[in-house]
Amino acid sequence: MANKFISIKEAIEQGQGQVSIRGWVYRERGSNKLKFITLRDSTNVIQCVLDRGNFDSTWSEVDSIRMETSMELSGEIKKDERAPTGYELQVKEFKVVGKSENFPINKDQSVEFLADNRHLWLRSRRMTSMLKIRSTVFAAIDEFFKGEGFYEYHSPIFQAVQCEGGSELFSVNYFDKKDVFLAQTWQLYAEPAIFALEKIYTISPSFRAEKSKTSRHLTEYWHAEMEVAWANFEEIQNYGERLLKHIVKKVLDNNKPELELLERDWKKLLPTLEKPFIRMTYTEALKILKDKFEMDIEWGKDLRTIEEEKLVSLYDVPVICTYYPKKVKAFYMTEDQENPEVVQGCDFLAPEGNGEIIGGSHREHDLEKIKARLREQGEDPAQYEFYLDTRRYGSVPHGGFGLGVERVIKWVCGLDNIKDAIPFPRTMERYKP
Ligand code: 4AD
Ligand code: MG
Fold this sequence. Notes:
Helix content: 25-40%
CATH superfamily of the largest domain: Bira Bifunctional Protein, Domain 2
Number of domains: 2
Number of helices: 15
Structural class: alpha+beta
Oligomer: single chain
Bound molecules: 4-amino-1,4-dioxobutan-2-aminium adenosine-5'-monophosphate, magnesium ion
CATH class of the largest domain: Alpha Beta
CATH architecture of the largest domain: 2-Layer Sandwich
Strand content: 25-35%
């Protein structure tokens, strides 16, 4: 085989002359004179032609090349308007690296079949595009926080406390102990660390035993969380807004071809970059829902998916909804001084029907209030002593938020279901392959 291999993208950029490429057979068809192979690698696809005149002695091998065979090909590349990506390779030499049996995935397979064969479906151009965007999103989150002077910090995944409601905890068989769960959030182990590092973030898996079969819930998802000392409620919201703008900017800078392959109208993301987010209180949100949609929601009820969807349908940028009723939010949120019925919690609701992508708050500093709210939720404050110490030794105003990475990917990519924002989705019903 000839010289150095280059990617299909590089070969197309070169546009002429001799090239050597390698990858997998995406499509193949042929007659007894010509074989057409569309080769794919991680960068693109290209049409390749093998002429029997050049391969008469090995034609049976050429003829037997099937979808997903891995190969090396050398030859001359030239422009060809009829080829799918505008170029064609006239093959001079080929080598089969790994044969492929009959690949089970071809056209028009059911969603279930594709889910059962997820390990193979990952190779599809749709999944490849999503995975590239996913990689950009993770990098953008890191870059944003590092750029703002945050330290990366890690909480344990085995935890003996709940933070976001006990009903959604996964118990673990931990040497016969009864009170060990998978992390729902890093938060209770992150707050102690702001006394050391002040500004911290993580991207880590979180686990929720949600019994909901919706297009936005996973049982295992990647959670980007931050916690910051000395911050007030508004500053926490500002960090969330800047982070989302940064993620969207990075995806638009790096992944327009992938967004187009996913048939995502990426122009719909531009307002998020260019305009300030909409900020409103929960009480204002109820009024808007009543005025615009005649939806009568009793004050004190949490916003449901349908209500979030209606609300965001009015805007082309995310909505930051604040000051929710205390009783629908977690025990650690700061009670508002003027109205103790509401807390300094914020949900970021993404446009185009996507709903909550970030949940955050300022953190209550009053030890007795925290204990009382834990008791109201049926928790024993004694289990939380390590956490309560954060309020005993030099407490400072602080807060943070959590961003559901797959929810952001679903929105940015315009996906119908969150399951397509992660390589191997875990839901109530699916934990294999
Ligand atoms: O709103 P949540 O429950 O907030 C917390 O966990 C806080 N402790 C975060 C913090 O302040 N450090 O979850 C945060 C985000 C949600 O806004 C949502 O985007 C995502 O996590 N999320 C899920 N994503 C996918 N599947 C699920 N089942 C999710 N549950 C929450
Ligand atoms: Mg939430």
